[in-house]
Design brief:
By secondary structure, this protein is α+β, with helices and mostly antiparallel strands. It is about 25% helix and about 40% strand. The protein is built from nine helices and 30 strands. Helix 5 runs antiparallel to helix 6 and helix 8 runs antiparallel to helix 9.
Length: about 575
């Protein structure tokens, strides 16, 4: 009896030890908004298709990094695997970190949500050897505004510069928060090359690059706010260590920098002297009105063009409408613009071209047309008026009103034969000339079930055999997952993190299907050894390992859409070549 109880206890203990654990652990549950949080997702058994939470209200500033611990102690195997992320809060408050999930032997396991409290910024000791402190003192993001007190609709420019101290290096950066220009009309100016220049920041020598240029036109008077540009920068700073030659070594840290909010005080346009036809033009302009013809025949067309040329908010006002005689037929104008935008504003020309058709002969005056604008140089309103024009219209020699009237008054009589095309006699035929009994449909319905029953039996047996083939099912599942993640990678080109996560999963599942290995066996040396034993060409082995390395590097370095498209094409080509060799 005691032996039986001992065996039962041993079985229960083994079941307990075999249970899968999957949990999330954080470095702290309360932190300042200027601090960072470490979170580890740990499991005691290898799994597939790890899905992290969305990390809402946090930014991922590091990771995911993966670590595996596999050891044998006194004949007992201990296994653990973890995914690690470093997070930075985006605002103060109480925020949950949602569940993550992973599949182990076909079963999905999830972590419990964790509540994180984010407080106001906390004081940190200013250690001169602390890399984060050095980075905070050595790198600055500045927004330079050309004018902080413009008039309504007057152009101003904003230039964002990243200043870096001479003993500091920058590896790369990510834009965390794009500036929002509420109540401004904005246009970005492309920065074609990030040229490093020398300059001063608070009296100290720095190097800087221009990251972004924008031209703004305020659309509302009063105090308007420019939202800041925020970057997450990977910085190389001197560490507290020295190499064997006594030189200080460099260490890499990350630093979040922001240009800060800027307030623009926009002055309203003066009410005194404001013309009634003022449509919002601000700048310095010339106005003209021209016609394509001075004389023409009736029913012919000519073009009337109203044009404004100069410097100012050319895209933000409407040209005046011509006041033409009602006997002229006027069509909707064709709008054309030729505008160039620089840091000093927009300059060029805009025009409306009307097509006008006089239907009757006569002399048609085109009254003067007035265009008004606010001149920034003199801070007064100005009005420009075109000269009066006249259009001489002659009778059209090809048009005779009497002939047309005669055509209209002509009476058309019916001949009585207008219904001759309709048939009045029918010739009906039967649409079903064969009997159902003994026909093709009869025999198909009779013999069809007798043929289908054996096919259904064969299909059922094959399906049962397939379901019992566990190894084959696993290979087929991994092949299916590889195709799925390749498809996800293709649709995610241009989005760095989703693309490389999907591509890495596709490569892993492909190898699991072809080499019949588990995720715990994934390492570059192991993959290199297995592919070499399978006599795979060395160039294809190097290509496959290079793709895996690109997926790992993508977490820490910037990749463009062209890089992603190239890696996707390379993955398709490499998998295709491996398929021919791994049979």
């Amino acid at each position: 009896m005691k032996i039986r109880l001992f065996l039962v206890f041993l079985c229960i203990a083994n079941i307990g030890f075999a249970q899968v654990t999957f949990e999330a652990k954080v470095s702290k549950k309360t932190l300042g908004i200027n601090e960072r949080l470490r979170i580890d997702f740990k499991m005691n058994k290898d799994g597939d298709n790890f899905t992290p939470p969305s990390f809402e209200n946090f930014r991922v500033v590091g990771g995911p990094s993966q670590s595996i611990n596999n050891s044998w102690i006194n004949g007992k195997r201990t296994y653990s695997k973890s995914y690690t992320y470093f997070l930075a809060p985006t605002k103060r408050g109480v925020f949950p970190i949602d569940q993550s999930s992973i599949e182990v032997d076909g079963v999905t396991y999830k972590t419990s949500p964790i509540e994180i409290v984010v407080t106001a910024a906390v004081d940190k000791p200013k250690d001169p050897n602390d890399p984060e402190f050095i980075a905070s003192e050595s790198i600055h993001l500045v927004a330079e505004v050309s004018k902080t007190t413009p008039y309504l609709n007057e152009s101003i420019s904003v230039v964002y510069k990243l200043y870096v101290a001479e003993n500091t290096g920058v590896r790369n950066w990510d834009e965390l928060d794009t500036p929002r220009y509420n109540d401004f009309w904005s246009q970005n100016i492309a920065v074609k090359e990030l040229a490093v220049k020398k300059g001063k920041y608070k009296g100290e020598n720095y190097r800087y690059v221009v990251l972004k240029k924008t031209v703004l036109f305020p659309q509302k008077s009063g105090e308007l706010t420019l939202e800041p540009l925020t970057l997450d920068v990977s910085v190389e700073v001197p560490s507290g260590r020295r190499d064997p030659f006594g030189r200080r070594t460099m260490t890499t840290t990350t630093r979040t920098v922001t240009a800060g909010k800027r307030t623009i005080k926009v002055k309203p346009l003066p009410k005194a002297g404001k013309p009634q036809n003022f449509s919002g033009a601000v700048g310095q302009f010339q106005f003209s009105a021209t016609r394509s013809k001075k004389s023409l025949n009736a029913t012919e067309a000519f073009q009337l063009t109203l044009a404004v040329e100069g410097k100012g908010n050319l895209k933000l006002f409407e040209l005046p409408n011509p006041n033409l005689p009602p006997t002229l037929e006027v069509y909707e104008p064709e709008y054309l613009e030729d505008i160039n935008t620089t840091l000093s504003g927009t300059a060029g020309s805009i025009s409306d071209t009307y097509t006008v058709v006089p239907n009757e002969a006569g002399q048609y005056p085109i009254p003067p047309i007035e265009f008004s604008y606010f001149d920034l140089a003199t801070e007064t309103y100005r009005a420009v008026t075109s000269n009066q024009m006249r259009i001489s219209v002659k009778p059209n020699p090809n048009y005779s009103s009497g002939t047309q009237a005669a055509e209209d008054e002509r009476v058309v009589y019916a001949s009585g034969g207008q219904f001759l095309s309709f048939k009045t006699k029918t010739s009906l035929k039967a649409i079903n000339t064969t009997a159902f009994y003994g026909g093709r449909l009869f025999w198909s319905l009779l013999l069809g079930p007798l043929i289908l029953i054996p096919l259904i039996i064969l299909y059922t047996k094959k399906r049962e055999k397939t379901s019992l083939d566990l190894a084959g099912n696993k290979i087929r599942k991994n092949n299916k997952l590889a195709r799925k993640y390749l498809s996800e990678a293709k649709t995610s080109v241009g989005e760095k993190e989703p693309f490389y996560i999907a591509l890495e999963r596709a490569l892993h599942n492909y190898l699991k299907a072809k080499l019949k290995i588990e995720t715990s066996e994934f390492s570059k040396d192991r993959i290199n050894s297995l592919l070499t034993k399978k006599q795979v060409l060395r160039v294809d082995v190097v290509s496959f390992l290079g793709l895996l390395e690109a997926c790992e590097l993508a977490r820490y370095t910037p990749f463009s859409a062209s890089d992603m498209a190239r890696d996707y094409a390379k993955a398709l080509e490499t998998i295709s070549r491996l398929d021919k060799q791994l049979k």
